Amino acid sequence: MDSKNDDPTFMVDDSNYLALRSIYTQGKSVLSEAETLIVDQSSIERIPGGWLYNKYSKHHIIFLRGLNLLGLTCELSGFIAGEYFSRFGERSAPTNESPFTIDPYFESSIWIFILVLSVFLIPVLFKKSTNSISFLSEKLKYYHFPVCVLLGAYIFSRRLYSETISFIFNDLILIIVGILLVIVYSNIKYEEDGRYMVTWLEYIGIHLQFSVLVALVLVELCRCIIITIIKIDKAQSDEMFGMSFNSWTVLIMSVLFVLGVIFMTMYKDIYFAAVLGYNFFGVYVMQRSSCIEENCYDDVQEAALILGSLTYGFIFLTILFYPRLICYNLRARR
């Protein structure tokens, strides 16, 4: 950087430093530490237009870190409490009257996987690298905290309560969480290759986690909506808008499958598709178990098996033909 240049204050996008150049800083970068975007609040206040960089100030970054850590704690607490009070997988009231019901062990395992990925997110939040600070202050912002808190409430509620009002409550939670996650997902995913470089830790903690989480919330929302409609239906009819609930289930799973293919095509996001396929197999296993004890939905069982197999087939083809684009934003550090 030319120290004699008196250009106005500006931010260089996708750089490894925050450039605040003006005659007030004598052309020097106002950095608290090297290789980081974090700046001192006092330094920002001395520069005209410095308020634009408040999101990179130390106290703001510390606040975001603490807020996200608190949110992850709420999510973990909700899972542990829900599993404990439901005796780790045993439901107080079964919901297998819905054709779109996933095996409880499939559900628990994927939520455990989400919590494990959250462990990788924690050190990312506390790293001082450009990517980590940019992710926290520009992409994650305040979206992640309500997501974690609401998911903790949902995980706890879905295990213990089977009343109609609780399912409506869960539907509202998942809708809000879904909107917030789509915003975060759109911020961190790109169609093109090689936008920037991240480490393995950042890749797992950020990109992998939110791909899995968005897909899981989408599946949970579809499942809860069908259960809610069945419970609200006082006449106990087997149809909605002229279609049976099992036909609706097959249709919804087909739409989810198409979404998985689209995400693999646009973003090469095999993790999003893998979660969908995993849940399809969870539906298949649940239907197989239901056939032993009571009536089951043969068409849902067959569709779940076919769609799950096709999903993982497309994942295999994506890995085979686009191996370098699977981890498209993973590069070795310079």
UniProtKB/TrEMBL annotation:
The UniProt record lists the keyword tRNA-binding: no
Entry's transmembrane regions: 62-85, 105-126, 142-161, 167-188, 200-230, 245-263, 270-286, 306-325
Signal peptide: none
Entry keywords, A to Z: Membrane, Transmembrane, Transmembrane helix
rRNA-binding listed as a keyword: no
Name of the protein in its database record: Uncharacterized protein
Source organism: Blepharisma stoltei
